[in-house]
Amino acid sequence: MRRGSIVQLVLIGVVAGGIASALALIPNWLPPSASREAGRIDFVFWFVTGICIFVFAIVAAVTVMAVWKFRAKPDDDSDGPPIHGHTGLEIVWTAIPTLLVTSIAIVSAIVLAKDDAAGSNPLRVNVTAQQFAWTFSYPQFGNKKSAVLRLPLHRSVVLTMTAKDVIHSFWVPEFRQKQDVVPGIHPTLHITPTKIGTYPVICTELCGLGHALMRSRTVVMKPDEFRRWASGKGAGA
Questions:
Q1: Torsions phi, psi of 6, nearest 5?
Q2: Which residue in 63, 156, 226, 233 could disulfide with 152, CB within 3.0 to 4.6 Å?
Q3: pLDDT for 86-109, tens place per residue?
Q4: Under 8 Å CB-to-CB from 161, ≥6 apart: which residues?
Q5: For the whole model, what pTM was predicted?
Q6: Is the Cα torsion angle 52, 48, 39, 156 positive or negative in sign?
Q7: Which of 81, 116, 93, 99 is nearest to 189 (CA)?
Q8: If you average pLDDT over residues 200-217, what whole number do you get?
Q9: Is the pLDDT of residue 119 over 50?
Q10: Is residue 76 in a domain?
């Protein structure tokens, strides 16, 4: 390939990558993060997005160059010249995707391991899902029950989940983490809230006619306010 063609290929790739980067970065695709784990998950998201933009730029550049430089002339129905394989090129385009996918797997495994590691003295909350409501109880506070998930700021929290009937899925967009809740299995989810506020709890697994109404709230509170609430009598529904 001539030097001029290589320069053109690179320029097309840069333009394609720039357009894809603008579409990825300018719109506010993600909700504000409100947990320590969300930052790590966002890193994985943007890491994978960067790799996708890199691959897209190469594919777009090669496609545009092929259409521009090697398109058939009008009324030319002849077969093109036979092209033989290039062993070195095939090794390169096999090795690079392998390295990229391996790097994604390694980064994801590290992030999942860190997000799974609960801090010292975590707050434990039992989460019960049933058609079509969430219930939260606090074993460390006399199994106090609430229809709203209340959490203290900056404290490690371990959610232990139970489904009473069908498969549900626990998700708070601002925490980024999602956990399927399957009957007979009790998965856990680790969260460390970092922002005071109220966030939606959403069921993201179709669980019946009332699925769209299976909503609750997460209220992140100052530690003193949470202790006063949790130590009070009665349900916190």
A1: -65, -40
A2: 226
A3: 888 889 989 999 999 999 999 999
A4: 126, 127, 128, 129, 170, 179, 181, 186, 187, 188, 189
A5: 0.81
A6: positive
A7: 116
A8: 95
A9: yes
A10: no
3-state secondary structure of 166: coil
Token digits of residue 211:
């699925």
110 and 127 belong to one structural domain: no
Residues 129 and 102 in one domain: no
Pairwise CA distance, residues 170 & 114, whole Å: 20
HEC string of 69-102 equals HCCCCCCCCCCCCCCCCCHHHHHHHHHHHHHHHH
Residue located via tokens 């943007």: 46
Domain range for 28 is 3-68+87-116
For residue 235, pLDDT beyond 50: no
- Whether residues 134 and 105 share a domain: the answer is no
Q: Report the 10 Å Cβ neighbour count for 108.
A: 14
**Nearest Cα residue to 192 out of 138, 140, 154:** 154
Same domain, residue pair 102 and 166 = no
Beta strand segments in the chain, E: 123-130, 133-138, 144-146, 149-152, 157-163, 168-171, 178-181, 188-191, 197-203, 215-221
The total number of structural domains in the chain stands at 2
